[in-house]
Amino acid sequence: MLQQTPATVPWQKPAPGSIILDRLAGAVVEVKDLEATRAFYETIFQTAGGEWQVEAKRMLFHCGSQQIEFVRRPKPRTLAVAGQHHGYRVPRSDLQRMVDSLTREGSTVNWWREDHPDEREVSPYINDPSGNIVQLVASDGDGLLLNHAVVIVRDLEEGEVIFLNALDGELEHYHGWRTEDGVDAREVWYEGDDPCAPWTRRAIVSFRSHKPEPNSIPQLFMRYGESMVAVILTGKRLFEPLEEILRGTPRLVFHSPQSANDVARYLSGVRVSSVALVYDGGKIPFELDGKDIYFRDRSGNFLQITCDR
């Protein structure tokens, strides 16, 4: 494997103006059964100190400056097979008790690790009753309930353009480009000695040697103030909504201390034409609704920015 670094995409940042995203404000998750969902997440959220709000077709958990919304769907879109998931912070002292409780309730718990330097030790991953992957992140102190989120993309260059450049994320770590990443996949993971999450590695049969060639899947880890978002390449076929659909679920929600008009003005000036297939005309289409802005990437990830003003 050649020594490489993430693609450097030609970028034209609009001037004047900028965007500030200081945390994840929450997420919107599709589920099949609200009652079963609440029973599952109450075990995980019990020490968070938040409040539930139950409605006919949706359910919300408010916790400090974040909100997790569960919307009922006959066939929830979970993307679990590709590794998309949310990492929730729980007290380290309560972690094993929560795992034991979820196990008694019938959940299967997997102990995996990921490739960010802070996640090299194994942690528990559980599927909720609808199939969404949940990671429990052991914490020794206070912090946001939704610690981080992982989204999947069909083209990592497009993911870099949107999440790193357009949304001005701070690149914290990358994995899958360096020579040692490939050596690690071949000599450790493929031999069965590495409990890494299954979506972080793959072995494709070479048409030359007719043997599996293990590789690390490219990933970008970006920070937005208090929160981290990872973007990971997937080989799975992804659902792409119609071009005009900008507001959908599941959805990741960012917070900005700026006004909605300032953020909208910034997005209006963004040009992503360096990646021909991102958006027609080289612009990110978005919908402004009060203090909230809705848009999506070409991999079908719905995104929202909720603003203070």
Structure description:
The chain is of the alpha+beta class and 309 residues long. The chain has a domain at 23-172 and 218-237: 2,3-Dihydroxybiphenyl 1,2-Dioxygenase, domain 1, CATH 3.10.180. The chain has helices at 34-45, 92-104, 156-166, 179-189, 260-269, and strands spanning 23-31, 51-54, 58-63, 66-72, 85-91, 109-112, 123-127, 133-139, 146-153, 170-175, 201-205, 212-216, 219-224, 227-233, 251-256, 287-289, 292-296, 302-307. The strands form 3 sheets. It has an 8-stranded mixed beta sheet, covered by helices on one side. An 8-stranded mixed beta sheet has the order 6-7-8-5-9-14-13-10. Strands 11-12 form a two-stranded antiparallel ribbon. Strand 3 (58-63) and strand 4 form a beta hairpin.
H/E element string?
EHEEEEHEEEEHEHEEEEEHEEE
Report the total helices: 5
CATH topology of the domain at 23-172 and 218-237: 2,3-Dihydroxybiphenyl 1,2-Dioxygenase, domain 1
Quaternary status of these chains? single chain
Roughly how many Å is the radius of gyration? Answer: 19 Å
Fraction of residues in H or I helices? 10-25%
* Percent strand: 25-35%
CATH architecture of the domain at 23-172 and 218-237: Roll
Quote the average pLDDT.
Answer: 88
Q: Report on the biggest sheet.
A: 8 strands, mixed
CATH homology superfamily name of the domain at 23-172 and 218-237: 2,3-Dihydroxybiphenyl 1,2-Dioxygenase, domain 1
The top-level CATH class of the domain at 23-172 and 218-237 is: Alpha Beta
Count of individual beta strands: 18
Low-pLDDT runs: 1-16
Q: Could you say which overall geometry the principal axes of the C-alpha atoms support?
A: globular
Strand order of the largest sheet: 2-3-4-1-15-18-17-16
